Amino acid sequence: ARFTLDALPGKQMSIDAELRNGDIDQGEARRLRQQLERESQLFGAMDGAMKFVKGDVIAGIVIILVNLIGGFAVGTLQHDMSLGDAAATYSLLTVGDGLVAQIPALLVAVAAGTMVTRVG
């Protein structure tokens, strides 16, 4: 998505050059510009979605670490569990929570991957 947005000015200049040279008429140039605008909007939206997914994954990893450390502390200090029992119990719960929390990010990533393969 980023490379497509970076190449946008070059594509616009290419359309202008073809119009000046007479390779295409005014209607074809207008159609190409509209198509280029639609593509840039699509890839811009995808770029934003991928940045959101990246931030969501980073936040999820931080939350998993906090849950794991907090679970060890709660298990050993409040529930009088041994460190091994607390690790077994709360690491399993943390992994389950982390997997459930990443489902929306996975769905967005799969949808973006499907769009890229169909557009490109």
What does this structure look like?
With 120 residues, this protein is mostly helical. The chain has one domain (2-119). 90% of the residues lie in helices and 0% in strands. The chain has 5 helices and no strands. It has helices at residues 2-6, 8-21, 26-78, 83-101, 103-119. Helix 2 (8-21) packs antiparallel against helix 3 (26-78), helix 3 (26-78) packs antiparallel against helix 4 and helix 3 packs antiparallel against helix 5 (103-119). The chain starts with a helix and ends with a helix. The mean pLDDT is 86.
What is the element layout, followed by pairings?
Blueprint: H1 2-6, H2 8-21, H3 26-78, H4 83-101, H5 103-119
Helix pairs in contact: 2-3, 3-4, 3-5
